[in-house]
Each structure stands twice: as C-alpha cells, then as structure tokens.
C-alpha cells in the first residue's frame, strides 16, 4: 500500500510539472506599446470630450504616434533589411515586414511601410481592452481605473497618480536645443504632479559640469522621502549620465530616468562636446556600467530610452542623430550579480515634438511612471 501511494504521488508530481511546462506563457508587457496605447487612449478622451469623430481621432493618432509590434532592432530593419537576421522566435508578421522593407527605397518609403497603415498604426487604433489583463490599468493604478477613466483622465486616475507619485519630483532636464519643447511639457506636467524645468547652458560631460548638475538636482530633493524622476531631452543626455555617475547620493534619490531623443553615442556630423562618435561610444561603454551606477539601496533603476524619428531620414533617426545612436544596451552583468541599471525600451516618437499636445505627452509619461513605480518595477 505504501509503495502504491508513493507511485501515485510521483505520478501526480510529474503530471503537474508536465502541465505547467506545457501551459502557454502570457506575452510579456511591452513598455513601448503601453506608452503608445496610453497616448492613443488619451487622444481618444480629448476627441470624445470635443464630440469628435473616430476619423478625427485616427488622424491625430496617425500624425503624432509611431509604433509597430515588431519594433525590436527597428533601426536595423529600416537601414539594412537585407542583412538583418531575425532572432528566433520571430514576432508575428516580422518576417514579412523585413522582406517588404528590403524591396523599398531607404527613407520615406520604408518609414511608411514600417509605421503606416500596413504596419503598426492598426495596433494603436485597436481597443486597448483586447491587450488583456496585463495591460489593464486597474492592475497598476488601482481599483476604479480602467481604459475609459484613463482616456478621460477622470478622478480615480488623478487620485492614483497622486498616490503613486507622492514625494516624487519630475525634473525636465533640457539643453538649449530642446528648451522650446521643454517649457510647455513642464507646464503640462505641473498640472498633475510636482514638475520642474532645469535648463543647461552646456552639454559637455565634464567633471565640473557633472558635479554642478548633480548638486542642482539634489537641491530639489529637500526632504528625506523625496525622490527624483528625470526626463532628459536631447543633447542633455550625456551630461545627465555623467552627473549620476559622479554622485552616489543622487543615484539613490533618482528612481527613473527617461532619455528622450538623446545623442548617447554622438552626432556623426557635428559631435557634441568635441567628442567623435567612436569616443562617445567608448565613454558610454566605460562609464555606463552596473558597477559605476550602483546604488546603496538594492534596487534596479529604470533607464528608459525613447528615440525620435523623421520620416525621410537615412539612416533612420531624427535627421541629426541616428536611431542607433539614441539608445544604449544594458551593460554586461558583473560577477557580483548586482544590476542597478534596468534598460527599458520605449520605442519611438516623431522628431517634431509639436505634433503631440504637451498635455497628452505629459500624461502619457506620468502613466508610464506610475506603472514603472508599481506593477512594472524592474527587479534587481
């Protein structure tokens, strides 16, 4: 009897293990899609309040948002589709997309195929509820929040944002090249959260400049509970990373960094700060590491990258900085296993920032932050 019971338990264990292994895993939530869908839903809410039509909403989405389900390695697909090797497993429609791009001229033709009607635009116009429970706003904003309340920016969503971002200061760090876009974005963010604008006179990642920026940022976090969220526009990116590198106290206070259209690997035609692209890339590899960016508190800080694109740019990018130069891979994991850097790909957006209303742009960023600081917090 004892032998029979043991065999039964072994068989039951093996059966349960087989069932778990055979169970299909749900798709991982894609931060790039989450941000784009939030922007699309907010645009719907604006059109609904103005008694607009579905057609006018779809036109605004097409004019101001970019997305494709097969966005990974997008710069390689747009620039060199013939040489691009699709990773296994491939994404839905990815192989057909690459084959189609290879037949088109670089620039506007490939851009329209990638992001146009045959590309990812339909994904932005679909009902977001079809994305499933992982994307349901109630999971990361709390009870009473769904896609309808999110689109209308109703009281439950506003209350959830205030709870999640209490004691958090959003700082727009912008060099001269992006001040025109930074000022209305800061004003829009300030309607919902604590938001500041920090303009920079220079962009050189020098030691004195980095230390000065670090001290200016820390001056905004006056209380022990205060935390900083940094939204970095354009050429300010390398100097901001140098500031975080220079000050461990700043790294402990910073909980999210959004690098928006930053030339992290340099500008080919006119290198900022006197650094050529090869020098800038070496600087990134040597400076942006898990060891250098370690934090006293054991956590992973999301470093989110959003690239800016122009339709006719070749290589793909904003016409000045290639897409590939606006991003950086997560550094190699050290022997200690500590990973204080968590790279988060936010996809792409139009180089012309005026195409998306700053209120919509700001609220999309706020929703992304609420997700990253809650349900979507990376694990160290």
Textual characterization of the structure:
With 380 residues, the protein is an alpha/beta fold. Helix content is 43%, strand content 12%. It has a domain at 166-372: 3-Layer(aba) Sandwich (Rossmann fold), CATH 3.40.50. β1, α11 and β2 form a beta-alpha-beta unit. The N and C termini lie far apart (48 Å).
Helices, strands, pairings?
Layout: H1 2-22, H2 31-49, H3 54-64, H4 74-79, H5 94-102, H6 108-115, H7 121-125, H8 137-141, H9 147-152, H10 155-164, E1 168-174, H11 179-189, E2 194-199, H12 207-218, E3 227-233, H13 237-246, H14 248-253, E4 254-260, H15 277-287, E5 301-309, E6 341-350, H16 358-372
Parallel strand pairs: 1-2, 1-3, 3-4, 4-5, 5-6
Helix pairs in contact: 2-3, 2-16, 5-6, 11-16, 12-13
Strand residue content:
5-15%
* CATH secondary-structure class of the domain at 166-372: Alpha Beta
CATH architecture annotation name of the domain at 166-372: 3-Layer(aba) Sandwich
CATH topology of the domain at 166-372: Rossmann fold
Q: How much helix, percentage-wise, in residues?
A: 40-55%
Number of strands: 6
Shape: globular
Q: Main β-sheet: number of strands, strand sense, barrel status?
A: 6 strands, parallel
Helix count? 16
Stretches with pLDDT under 50, minimum 5 residues:
8-12, 14-27
Q: Helix/strand-derived class?
A: alpha/beta
Rg (C-alpha, Å): 22 Å
Distance between the termini: 48 Å
Strand order, main sheet: write it out. Answer: 2-1-3-4-5-6
Give helix and strand order, one letter per element, not per position. HHHHHHHHHHEHEHEHHEHEEH
**Whole-number mean pLDDT:** 88
């Amino acid at each position: 009897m004892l032998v029979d019971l043991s065999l039964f338990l072994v068989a039951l264990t093996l059966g349960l293990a087989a069932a778990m292994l055979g169970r299909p895993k749900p798709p991982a939530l894609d931060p790039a899609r989450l941000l784009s869908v939030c922007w699309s839903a907010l645009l719907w809410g604006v059109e609904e309040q103005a008694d607009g039509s579905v057609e006018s909403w779809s036109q605004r989405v097409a004019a101001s948002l970019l997305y494709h389900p097969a966005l990974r390695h997008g710069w390689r697909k747009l620039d060199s589709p013939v040489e691009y090797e699709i990773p296994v497993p491939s994404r839905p429609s990815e192989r057909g997309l690459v084959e189609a791009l290879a037949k088109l001229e670089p620039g506007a033709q490939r851009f329209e195929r990638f992001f146009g009607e045959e590309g990812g635009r339909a994904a932005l116009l679909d009902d977001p509820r079809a994305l499933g429970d992982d994307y349901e706003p109630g999971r990361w904003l709390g009870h009473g929040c769904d896609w309808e309340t999110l689109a209308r920016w109703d009281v439950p969503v506003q209350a959830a944002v205030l709870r999640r971002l209490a004691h958090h200061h959003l700082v727009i760090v912008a060099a001269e090249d992006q001040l025109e876009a930074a000022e209305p974005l800061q004003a829009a963010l300030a309607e919902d959260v604590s938001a500041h604008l920090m303009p920079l006179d220079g962009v050189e990642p020098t030691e004195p400049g980095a230390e000065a920026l670090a001290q200016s940022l820390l001056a905004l976090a006056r209380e022990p509970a205060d935390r900083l969220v940094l939204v970095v526009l354009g050429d300010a990116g390398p100097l901001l990373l140098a500031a975080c590198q220079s000050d461990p106290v700043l790294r402990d206070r910073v909980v999210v960094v959004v690098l928006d259209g930053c030339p992290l690997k340099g500008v080919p035609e006119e290198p900022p700060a006197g650094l050529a692209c090869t020098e800038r890339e070496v600087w990134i590899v040597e400076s942006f590491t898990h060891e250098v960016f370690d934090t006293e508190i054991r956590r992973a800080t999301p470093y989110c990258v959003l690239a800016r694109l122009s339709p006719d740019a070749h290589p793909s990018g904003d016409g000045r900085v290639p897409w590939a130069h606006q991003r950086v891979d997560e550094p190699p994991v050290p022997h200690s296993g500590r990973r204080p850097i968590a790279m988060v790909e936010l996809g792409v957006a139009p180089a012309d920032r005026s195409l998306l209303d700053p209120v919509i742009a700001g609220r999309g960023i706020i929703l992304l932050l609420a997700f990253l600081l809650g349900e979507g917090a990376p694990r160290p």
